[in-house]
Amino acid sequence: MNRTILVVALAALGAASLMVTGCAGGTSAAEKPMGVWGYVASADNAKLEVADVQTGVNDLVVDSVLAPGDSWIVVHADENGKPGKRVGLQHVSKGESTAVKVALKNLTTSDVIVAVHADRGTPGKFDFDMMKKEMSPDRPYFVGGKELASVVAVR
């Protein structure tokens, strides 16, 4: 009987210890780094080359893009280093495309973020929602753990 009491006491102590450890300390889900939430591509089949400074105000020219599948060149307003509203969008086919012109609309910032997204949802329709990015089919490509994107000055 003493042995049974000892086993029960040790089990209760172990369970209590696990509960306290789970509640105190550690990193919450909100504090953990997000990591890659798009499509992983290799540097051999996904590249983006765009000049750091663009002279046009109505459009932007991507010098070269190498896309592992049908893709989108997406231009966002740069809001303190993070993508803001979308100000440009251009579809590109799998493979290499050069001198791709992207029309800019409603641009209010001097810098933009140019990124390459997969076209994996409805073909020819940009299916990406910033509020539900992990669930959107047309997520960006990541190469070497970093989003395939560049910051460009447009004004």
Give an overview of the whole structure.
The structure is a single chain. With 155 residues, the protein is mainly β. It has one domain: Immunoglobulin-like (Sandwich), CATH 2.60.40. The chain is 14% helix and 41% strand. It contains 1 helix and 10 strands; from the N terminus they run H-E-E-E-E-E-E-E-E-E-E. A 4-stranded antiparallel β-sheet has the order 5-4-7-10, with no helix packed on it. A 3-stranded mixed β-sheet has the order 1-8-9, with no helix packed on it. It has a 3-stranded antiparallel β-sheet with strand order 2-3-6, with no helix packed on it. A hairpin with a 2-residue loop joins strand 4 and strand 5. The longest helix is centred in the N-terminal third of the chain and has 22 residues. The N terminus is likely disordered.
Pick out its properties.
disordered N terminus; about 160 residues; 3-stranded mixed sheet; Immunoglobulin-like; mainly beta; 4-stranded antiparallel sheet; 1 helix
Q: In percent, how much strand structure appears in the residues?
A: 35-45%
In CATH's first tier, which class applies?
Mainly Beta
CA(first)-CA(last) distance: 82 Å
Low-confidence stretches: 3-34
Q: Total helix count? A: 1
Strand order of the largest sheet: 5-4-7-10
The CATH architecture name reads: Sandwich
**Helical percent range?**
10-25%
Number of beta-strand segments: 10
Instruction: Indicate the mean pLDDT.
Output: 80
Largest sheet: 4 strands, antiparallel
The value of Rg in angstroms is: 23 Å
CATH topology: Immunoglobulin-like
Number of domains: 1
Give, in order, the helices and strands.
Answer: HEEEEEEEEEE
Structural class: mainly beta
- Tell the overall outline: globular
